[in-house]
Amino acid sequence: MGTPEFSVPSLTALLDSQYKITCVYTQPPQKKNRGQKIYKSPIHLTAEKFNLKVRSPYNLSNDLEYKFFLDNKPDLVIVVAYGNLIPERYLKIPNLLFLNLHASLLPKWRGAAPIERSILNQDFETGISIMKIVKELDAGPFMLQEKVSIDKTVTAGKLKARLSKVGASAIIKAINLISNGEEKFIDQDVSNSSYAKKIEKFETKINWGNKSKDIIAMINAFNPTPGAWFELKSQRYKILEAEESTMTGPIGETLDDQLTIGTGKNSIKILQIQKEGKNILDVKNFLIGNNIKKGTKIL
């Protein structure tokens, strides 16, 4: 069970293993863009490429869907960013384990956005957990964890890609342990738990009164999506890459002609930027067609 690109390495790892995939579950195709063209999920496309049986229900709650699931008679269910909660009656099926790949070192960063929250928090490390799914969100015991270091330049996109590969290897390792009867689950320490809530739109606008290091973390956490942004002359601009600068000056004002902007402490120098509706450009090429001079006020 999976949906986004993050899930694909786990599916391909299973395909390369000795284990048989009886069915692949994913979110239904979605309408996107102005033409309302219907797009299948990355997992859906990968499954079709390898001629796997695909199921994409809008929900798992109805009796017909439940019967279909039971008729497949799975020995184990692997869940990687599926996008829907598994109904409790599925979790109560006798002798059936639902195993989830979660992109954090549980119990830290339970919830929908562990990668983004980890970068926003400027953690020095994160990782993946292979855990048993229970009724409470991301609260089940884990059997494996793998750590990954974070530096201050890593983006959510790059970290997600790295964790998806680490997680795929861990999934196979976990199944091997289960097959050999060697699995051991460790209960989470609830006192150390934290919640990675979904990223809200209001969080993505840059507050220039914050410290430069916090703004850099925000830019990295929201790259490639949804993007950290500011407004200038009623136009929205996303910053894809920036670095800290020791220049000081008025908060929210350009300190030179190269898009260095004053912050609550020090400043940031923009390296990559995207004007609303336009392509991503490095700052040098961007400034050729966008004359933003020293002293410009940025919202």
Major sheet size, sense and barrel closure? 5 strands, antiparallel
Please indicate the percent range of residues in DSSP E strands (runs of 2 or more).
15-25%
Helical segment count: 8
Can you tell me the overall shape? elongated
Radius of gyration: 22 Å
What's the CATH H-level superfamily name of the largest domain?
Formyl transferase, N-terminal domain
In total, the number of strands is: 13
Helix residue percentage: 25-40%
User: Which CATH top level class of the largest domain fits?
Assistant: Alpha Beta
Count of separate structural domains: 2
In terms of per-residue confidence, which ranges show pLDDT below 50 for 5 or more consecutive residues?
Answer: none
| H/E series | HEEEHEHEHEHEEHHEEEEEH
Keywords:
single chain; 299 residues; alpha+beta; Rossmann fold; Methionyl-tRNA Fmet Formyltransferase, Chain A, domain 2; 2 domains; five-stranded antiparallel β-sheet; 8 helices; 26% helix; 22% strand; elongated
